Each structure stands twice: as structure tokens, then as C-alpha cells.
Structure prediction request, 398 residues.
Amino acid sequence: MNCFEFQHEMNRQPATLSAAAEAHLQHCASCRRRLREQRASDARLLEALQVTPPPGLAEQILLRQRLQPARQRWPGLVAAGIALVLLAGAWLHRATMSDDALASTMAAHVLGEPALFEQHRPPDSELVAASIASIGGEIKKRLPLALATPCDVPGGDGAHLVFETTAGRTVMTTMPNHGGTSPAIDDDAVVSVVYRAPRGVYSLVARNSTAIKLTREMLNTRVEWHI
Amino acid sequence: MLTRRAREKRFEAMVHAYATDLYRWGYSLCQDPVLTEDLVQETYARAWKSLHRLKDADAAKAWLFTILRREFARHCASKHQQAVSLDDDEWNTIPCPRKQPAHELNQALGRLDEGYRLPLVLQVLGGFSAVEIGEIMGCSPDAALQRISRARRQLRKLLKTPPTTALRQCR
Prediction:
């Protein structure tokens, strides 16, 4: 091993040198000095990096982990089971779910997906057009969308269309197979309104009522509803 | 497939073995103790959810360091209201304010270019090989080595000059 090779190895893995590198050190004072200097420098650096974690950090991490639900052992089966329950639920839902429940369900559902309020992705125009068409609308002018994503809403075939307004984002959820309307949910954290569409309903969920109002106005001017 | 109990035992071992180093790694990224704690918590939360993907227990430390680096990048991206679909290279260039550390050597370290500083920290603090550093940083082992060499040179130089800025780049 020559000095160049030694230095390369010292740079790659300074803590553990190979037998060849150790042998090189035996007869090369220059490399011995370099190694000594680098190890001293690393020791000082390591000392500088020794910040003390807050007490109980590990316990907090473990506590948080214990509060999380177990990962399902048979995710496929469980998913299939959930899908069946949802299908049955969706069927029952149309007949039994109160109008109030739909608005709060949609609020909880949308808030449970924080990405809807954060992400920005060019929407799939086909999905957007199909979603609006599914509830009896036709887009006449481009919609100010931040995101569009399919969603397994009650009754199926739904989608989230996320609009940017000057008052913040509004998440529209189309539910072509759902009937009925719902009184608005309006509290400090969220506003959720369900509107009847020519086919099915759609919900608007936002952080404030101004965003809902702006979105509703925008939809009424840019979408033609075929009643 | 591991049972819940086996997963818990494995996870617990990972927490006790690496939480401190992970905290120090997080702190070297952001120099903010509160944010660091959040990053470590979030890293372990993600690790717990994805534990079934960790096939090689020996790779756990590098895996956790990688998750934390991504968490920090995500934090910087959201802080700057950037799209969250950024890839690694884009994340690496988002500027993120960092507090200036007090210790003289830490100060010099904080003034290093991020691309050089972090591989050096990974080598010194984590004891990682060039291959592991490359994986964590999303570059080749050779590039990692080159950055470490430059970091050492820059550090020597910086220790002879006074600090000028506290704004760094996330990486």
C-alpha cells in the first residue's frame, strides 16, 4: 500500500483500518502523523456534536408507539373486510344516515387527510371533468384547482377537488350516489356544508365560511348544472 | 412475519440504541432542540409504521438517519410552502434558517456548506461507511468521500476565519 492508497482508506473508514493500512503505518511517519491529526480532529468534532437529548426522550417515543394501533397482520384480508363493510354501509347509509351526520362525517374525513390542505399537484383534467359530470355538472371555465384525487365516499365514485381561494383552501367532495342535503357544520376548526347537485350531492369543507362562499360562487359561475 | 411482540422488542431496542445519536444528528441538521425532538419523534413514528420493510437489522441505524433527514427536508419544504412532491435533489436546495451554535467548533461546522458538512457529521457521529453515507445522503460512495475530504479542508480553513452568516440550506 502506498501513501495515496492509505489516505484514501483513512478517508473512507478512519475508525477501522485494514491490515495493509496498519502495515503501511509501520514504515511511514508522514501517514502516521496524518492519521494522528485526523483522529484528534474527529475526537474534537465528536465532542462538539455531543448535545444532550431531553430527559425521557426514549420513553416518550416508546409511549407514542404504544398508543399507535397495531399494524394488521393480514392487511389484504382486513382491507377486503373493510371494503365489504363500507359497501354494506354505503348501501345502508343512503337509507339511514341523518343529514347532520353527513356534514360532520365529511368534515372529519377531510380533516383526516391533511395533505388535502397542503399538497399542490397539477390535477388530472379528465378526473376533474368526470367528477363534476358525475354530479350533473359541466365545466365551462377552468377551475382554480390545487389538487384532485379520487375518494371512496359513501355510495362510491367520489372525488376530492381542492380549490384555492383568497380565504384559503376548500375541499369539494363529489358524492354522485348520495341523496339528501345537510345543515352546515360551523365551528372554530372547520366549516362543512353539503349541497344538493343535479345528481347526488357534494360537500365543501374549509377552515372558514368565506372560503366556502367564494368556492360556491366560483362553482356557480364556472360550472353549468344540468338539472 | 414478526409478531406484534417481536416488532415491539425490535423497535424498543432501536429506540434505546439510536435515539441519542439520532437526536444529535437531528440537532446537527437544524440546531433547534425543540424541532430536533419533533424530528426524532416523527422519525420513530414512521419507523414503527414501516418496520416490516427493514429486512436487515444491521441497517437500522442508517435507515433511521435517512428517515430523519427526509423528515427535516419535509419540514423545510412545508415551511417554505413548497410542493411536498419534491424529490431529494429539490429538497436539498430549499433554504432553511438555522440557529447559530455557540461552540466554536460547532460554529465552524455550521458554516460549512451543507453538502460537505452532513457527510462529515455522519462519518464522525454515526461512524457510517462511505456506502451508508451515500445511501443516507442520496449520492454515490465516491461523492460522499469527496465531500468528506472537502469538509475537512473547509473546516480547517473556517476555524481560522470569523463567522458571517446563520442562513444555511437544508440537506
